[in-house]
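Task 17 of the worksheet. Students: predict the tertiary structure of the chain below and write it out as structure tokens. Keep your answer in the requested format; marks are given for formatting as well as content.
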Amino acid sequence: MSSGKILVVEDDPNLLSTLEYNLRRDGHDVLTAADGAQALESARRGKPDLIILDLMLPGMSGYDICRILRQEMTVPILMLTAKDQEIDKVVGLEVGADDYMTKPFSMRELLARLRAMLRRARMTVTAPVESAGPVRIDGLEIDIARHRASLRGSTIELTPKEFDLLAFLATNKGYVFSREHLLEKVWGYDYFGDTRTVDVHIRWLRRKIEDDPARPARLVTVRGVGYKLEG
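Model answer:
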């Protein structure tokens, strides 16, 4: 039985072949693409459960592909980059990627991350107790059942992972969570993952829900501990 349908977008034929082999052996159906045009066509036609997207591609960069796909679908996206510059990782997350890995990477870690991402994609973030309705916090409303968020009545456009993170914090408002705990609960990683992923998503969320992102009043940092959503 297939664990999921995965689209791999990679222009290096050797790496593409290696990824395809290991993903199939792990029980996944695999679609492949070597450039941006193929990637967009395969994503739209194949409707994959997850996309592995290389950053450096001929014709159209992974950033551009990710930005376009994120406007059309909520599929989880794991970005691969040969660059080890922090700005490349940050930009990748900010255009809508759910996570990133830097080449060279461990195939074991990649497969573990993919399983976690697929598992999270099939789950909904649930509150510790059943809620009768949306969570409301200082003009911010998070409707988990309808997967919608608004600020003072205006809809907030969030990526899937931004919403997952906000929903988790909202249903646990007032509680402080470490980056590692958020990786486990929202991303589904036990020990895999870079905590920088959490920081970038927090920063991006603040731009959307705070009146002054430089002085956050809703999504606050507890120095030396982690983050919480003020209740």
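Marker's comment: The CA atoms of residues 11 and 34 lie 4 Å apart. The first strand starts at residue 5 and ends at 9.
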